[in-house]
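Hi U.,

Before I forget, here's the chain from the pilot set. I'm dumping it here mostly so it's searchable later in email.
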Amino acid sequence: MQTDTQQIKNLPIGVFDSGIGGLTVVREIMKQMPDERIVYFGDTARVPYGNKSKETVTKFSEQIVRFLIQQNVKAIAVACNTASAQAFPALRESCPVPILGVIEAGADSAAAATGNKKIGVIGTASTIGSEAYQKAILSRVPDAEVIGRSCPLFVPLVEEGLWEDPVTDEIARRYLEELCNRGIDTLILGCTHYPLIRGTIGRTMGEGVKLVDPAYETARELKNLLAQKNMLADGRPALGEGGQYEFYVSDMADKFKTFANMIIRYGILSARTVDIEKY
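Structure:
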């Protein structure tokens, strides 16, 4: 790792997810920190993480962190709710660069946003089962009522491109009916895929419910963290072979490229395949 302050500022930010949902975090980093370089890894060969054990998710996450460290990143954003819920404590202990996850950022925003202290969380079965959001929120608002709901079909619907579709509307109504009836005033989109169907979720919940997007909040907290450590990029970087944004996956690079261009509209996106099991 380079130690000169100026060199560190110009190193890239590492971002990873179990697949493609973490691109919503990348999109927010691009918006909020346009001068930063980004190295993204999507574990498309082993997605989804939401139905895997804590031990397996931690193993996969540690492999990816080792890969990103080899890319000489200055900080890492865990852009996966399941990995943040299951593996983050282990990653924080072992990672040699600043690292943050989406759970804490989402909990901070929800705690600040709620008026009646009734907060809903939607995510994968693993994220909801871990109660990571519930614990994080209660550490901030001890008397809050936190209601979790797993929404397993949202991810495949998003990945099929059914962002605005009657099928997605119907599934959303079924999943979210209980949360509507419980009188929540704040809802955390506890999966990085979910911001892509924010419109559907918002219509289903109604105007009185504030939606918290941990992708946005994670990018904001990352910017604050880098500023505190004097690590923000100092102007547009001198670009090497990979350009300002580099994307890696463990499988299906062409499918990833197509989907990624739908999300971030970068236009000239390419992705390289990595054998992540080597790390």
